[in-house]
Design a protein that fits this description.
alpha+beta; Lipocalin; 2 helices; about 30% helix; eight-stranded antiparallel beta sheet; 2 domains
Length: about 160
């Protein structure tokens, strides 16, 4: 069996080209792992806080241990604490007490506590029930995810009774 040198060179060039393509693909995959925006530097206690949403500048979690549902004057309401991590323009953590009105599909932020990354209190806003501002739930946003979480916990709490 004779091998033609031209056939051998063609197969060799094909193999070299394939190795280059694989190497370039692996290099791109490796760099994409490092370039993907993530919030690995800040993760709250996973036994307590559940992730809701993230983007390039913030992440949102809710506290599973303090959420509670109630019926009040014909309204179906749920209170829950949210934790916001923001990395722009500076890193800070914000814990907020929210009320969700399930009948009118509205949200209200009640108490707000802003911390630096060492959990030193920077600012706080206390609740004023008489001047509470209710915002509508906007479809396909974090507010809708918060609404759905509140609705799930309300139904879970009152479907047994």
């Amino acid at each position: 069996m004779k091998f033609s040198s031209s056939k051998y060179r063609f197969v060799e060039k094909k193999q070299v080209k394939m190795k280059k393509i694989i190497n370039v693909f692996l290099l791109i995959a490796m760099f994409s792992c490092f370039l993907t925006p993530c919030f690995a530097e800040f993760q709250p206690n996973p036994k307590r806080w559940t992730w809701i949403a993230s983007n390039s500048t913030r992440s949102i979690w809710f506290d599973r241990q303090s959420i509670y549902a109630r019926k009040e004057d014909g309204y179906k309401k749920v209170n829950l604490w949210l934790l916001f991590y923001r990395n722009s323009p500076k890193e800070e953590i914000m814990e907020c007490d929210w009320t969700v009105d399930l009948i009118n599909r509205k949200l209200s932020m009640n108490n707000v506590y802003v911390y630096d990354m060492n959990w030193n209190l920077i600012d706080q806003i206390e609740d004023d029930e008489n001047n509470r501002i209710w915002k509508p739930v906007v479809p396909e946003t974090a507010s809708e995810k918060i609404y759905k979480i509140a609705k799930y916990f309300y139904l879970k709490n009152y479907s047994k009774k």
